[in-house]
């Protein structure tokens, strides 16, 4: 019976489809304050590189902006670009952190992924960046 | 600014990618009883035909089997095949109902989709089938 | 002290600002079924005609479509047009029902408003329409 | 030790302090519909006639208006007038029902009181009125 | 190791300790209405007749009074009198129903016991009385 | 990589290990009443006959006893006997219903199984028995 | 179809409509204590400067007063004055902080905005002020 | 319309009705330990000095006793004595702290009031006392 | 009316009925680790020494074992032995702490009692022990 | 009656059935970061060595990976291998910690078991490992 499902393995894209270029920043008017900004979405989705099946997660992006904020619509398109990319959960979270740190140069950033259970086991990943002083 | 996003419009598939053939049934040993069977998933996903953006939903499939049960793994692959199909929410729910009624010939079936909000408005759809007596 | 607030009374619009014209319908492909469709938003807002202060509500629109569905984006703009209109809660709910029944000619429709408390008292209103047979 | 508390027994008012006169109605513009209107407050309070101690409750008033709605501010003042009246919980709920039925002549009315526990026992009372046809 | 616990078996009382005499009724002023009255406590406790160990439950007593209400303080003492009585859960619930029906002659009464789990299994019992017409 | 897991396939027992003999009934003292009795456990477990992996469920057994109650400790041992039996979820629920109906001859019985998700899909099954009159 | 909505773009006000003058303080009688005072509302609303659509939020204002408290009614009118102002969420939160710090000269203040999701992404912002010692 | 409500302004008492004398302490047998004791009630009520309308709160009193505990019944009567006193929320919480610190001389005490919303704004106040060492 | 209840005052036992002897320890195999062990029960019950009425609580026992664990069945019998003992809530919690510290010689122990409300006031007590180093 | 249950004592396996060999690690691409990884399952099950009855738990495994991640499918099979092993709850949690530390050499690891109540008492165990620096 398994053979039928192997044939149906979904095509997945490689990392090159992660659309880093769509990301856009906007000027932040209160750079001297240590304001915390958080974006939360229940709708992140990527694909398991081994089975080709979707991995769905709640995503939290928390940071202290320096001079820039991420523009929300560009963030949505950036996150949606993972939808058909085959990538391990732990690597996806770290990759999002790296791309946003490069864009925003924040004082602090933390990305949290809470993935729905697979085989009865849910996964939660917390990746952090802190600017050296 | 909108132009950039128009260029990035995601390719969506047509209805022909809905994988009805993967569905499989198994014999049900208690056909004389009016047993209620329900499958619930938080991870249904299709694509809006107009914007190319994902539509995520909680799906409930409730039925009174006659002689057949749907095989769960085949159901998972069937539902996953909607992932990149452009289809209106109301039509997706009715289509799932039609495909499963054709497969199982149940005494009763109900498919419920609870879609995450878009523009601040969430949508809930309940489609029903009742065998004529 | 009250005088200061009287001066600051917010301007409110009359019923003519309720934007019924923006509403648009789309063809529904399963008119023969008694499918239930529901839209839910936590963000409805109108203005108390006496105090000029906002009245916020959770709104549920539930119906059995006949030949038409309401287009979601047009619904959002229609509901947003109440934002600065001075209208009693009970009347707003009945007015929404009337406008949507006129647009969609559904088999059944129900509009529910759950307004946040004022003076410690919350209000819930359920208005219904049923097509004569 | 009990004597001290007996001395401190709070003065309670009789039924004559229930301020029925403050109640005001407003015209309802949709009398032909069977619209359901509900008012909910967590802050109703009266006094136990035997101990002089406060009885606090969540109150729900549900009705189908005929030609009148109760004005919300007058309702608040009416309910607040029970604050120092000594009255059994079961009688308070029935009295509220009677006063509002007299004022509004509704098609249907139901008053529900959910009183906080005394001696580890919470009390819930549901009193109903239905217009004879 | 079990022997030690057998020795320590708690003494339990027989049914004669159920203090039916403490129950008191008060006049109800609205006998013509079908008002529903409910008492809810999380603190009912009796003892398993076989193991001598406590059985704890949430208890709900719901009725439509005819001419009498049960006095709340007397109800508390009545329920507390089960504390050291050895009685099966199903029988306790039915006994409470019988004692209160005898006292109050209500139009309807229902007693619900929701017992904490034993051996991983919780028990819920619903006993009902309806006056013959 | 899959081969390693195939080798490790857990041994499962056949239906003959379902320990119907352990079940015991006790006399019920209120057979003339239509009392509802419910047992609820979060800890039911059987094994998928195809993968050999555990299937865990919340189980609710609801009935109106005629002359007998099931003894709770014997019920616990009966349910635990499914722990290593390979049986489809739908069949397990119907089998439990049949064994208990045979033992107790109730007026009515309903067994509900709410199984934890597999492949992102949870399953709920409701099997019913009603005595012919 | 978009054109229709562009025409309907809501007029939004500039920052000059933020009614800082309405704010009023009252004397605080316990200035020597480090008492924490918090105001929480679910009903804050401003307007997105780009789309003209409402942005709704839960707002928490937490501070340690020095010599003054904000008068609650004046705070309500101040917050309501944002209702039709076009302002970025991050800037609104910082602006509220600045206006209240200027009014109250507190020892510490923190303003938290939890905005409802847009495009499936909710935003939470925490802005802080601490008096230099 | 407001005039009617002005006439009905409730009489409120001054601070002299706060019944500090009713408070009683009992000996604490474990003064050498840093045990934390907390009392929680959902039923605190005082009156707004400006409008004469009730202010209801959840109250938490947390302390580390030194040699005395407050007697619970006397605490209840003390708290109930605020029922008709006109006092600002922030001042009520600090006053309760002062009275109990004077009575008990605790190592630490904290009083928290969580007041129900007025004008859509809820208030939470935390007042603290710490013994000097 | 009170007299009747005075007569019915429940007999309560003295401290000598607290069954410290039933407690048993078992060897702990990981004494070098700082493992935290917690036992939680919703079913603790003792009796108020003044009124003879039951006091029910949720109990949490948290410790870092040194060389011994408490045997769970013996703990259950120990806790059940408080059922008819008249003891102040604050003293019961401290007494349980002392008995278990004597038995187990843990590195750290904390006992928390969350008692159901009496007179509308719930009580929470946290008693701690820390081994001197 | 107990004898019958003694005969039915379930066979349990010894520690040698804990399938440490099935565990597999995968390379982690971000070893320089202090990323936190967590796996959560509601479906852990082992057997009480004294009664032969199942012990069910929620399990949380939290760690900071150094160079390796545990492969999720191998983790599932490892955890499932405890299903028929007789082992004390406190020892099972410590054993899982030891096996995973040996496999992954993480910078930090914590295993938490939250076991369902037995005899009305639930158990929670937290075992920790921290790499020496
Ligand atoms: Ca993976
Ligand atoms: Ca759509
Ligand atoms: Ca949402
Ligand atoms: Ca109004
Ligand atoms: Ca009463
Ligand atoms: Ca029993
Ligand atoms: Ca429990
Ligand atoms: Ca299956
Ligand atoms: Ca789940
Ligand atoms: Ca924005
Ligand atoms: Ca105030
Ligand atoms: Ca509220
Ligand atoms: Ca006490
Ligand atoms: Ca309570
Ligand atoms: Ca054990
Ligand atoms: Ca449980």
TrEMBL record, chains A, B, C, D, E, F, G, H, I, J:
<feature type="active site" description="Proton donor">
    <location>
        <position position="55"/>
    </location>
</feature>
<feature type="binding site">
    <location>
        <begin position="89"/>
        <end position="90"/>
    </location>
    <ligand>
        <name>substrate</name>
    </ligand>
</feature>
<dbReference type="InterPro" id="IPR016856">
    <property type="entry name" value="QueF_type1"/>
</dbReference>
<keyword id="KW-0560">Oxidoreductase</keyword>
<dbReference type="GO" id="GO:0008616">
    <property type="term" value="P:tRNA queuosine(34) biosynthetic process"/>
</dbReference>
<feature type="active site" description="Thioimide intermediate">
    <location>
        <position position="48"/>
    </location>
</feature>
<comment type="pathway">
    <text>tRNA modification; tRNA-queuosine biosynthesis.</text>
</comment>
<feature type="binding site">
    <location>
        <begin position="70"/>
        <end position="72"/>
    </location>
    <ligand>
        <name>substrate</name>
    </ligand>
</feature>
<keyword id="KW-0671">Queuosine biosynthesis</keyword>
<comment type="function">
    <text>Catalyzes the NADPH-dependent reduction of 7-cyano-7-deazaguanine (preQ0) to 7-aminomethyl-7-deazaguanine (preQ1).</text>
</comment>
<dbReference type="GO" id="GO:0033739">
    <property type="term" value="F:preQ1 synthase activity"/>
</dbReference>
<protein>
    <recommendedName>
        <fullName>NADPH-dependent 7-cyano-7-deazaguanine reductase</fullName>
        <ecNumber>1.7.1.13</ecNumber>
    </recommendedName>
</protein>
<dbReference type="InterPro" id="IPR029500">
    <property type="entry name" value="QueF"/>
</dbReference>
<dbReference type="InterPro" id="IPR050084">
    <property type="entry name" value="NADPH_dep_7-cyano-7-deazaG_red"/>
</dbReference>
<keyword id="KW-0521">NADP</keyword>
<keyword id="KW-0963">Cytoplasm</keyword>
<dbReference type="Pfam" id="PF14489">
    <property type="entry name" value="QueF"/>
</dbReference>
<dbReference type="GO" id="GO:0005737">
    <property type="term" value="C:cytoplasm"/>
</dbReference>
<dbReference type="InterPro" id="IPR043133">
    <property type="entry name" value="GTP-CH-I_C/QueF"/>
</dbReference>
<comment type="similarity">
    <text>Belongs to the GTP cyclohydrolase I family. QueF type 1 subfamily.</text>
</comment>
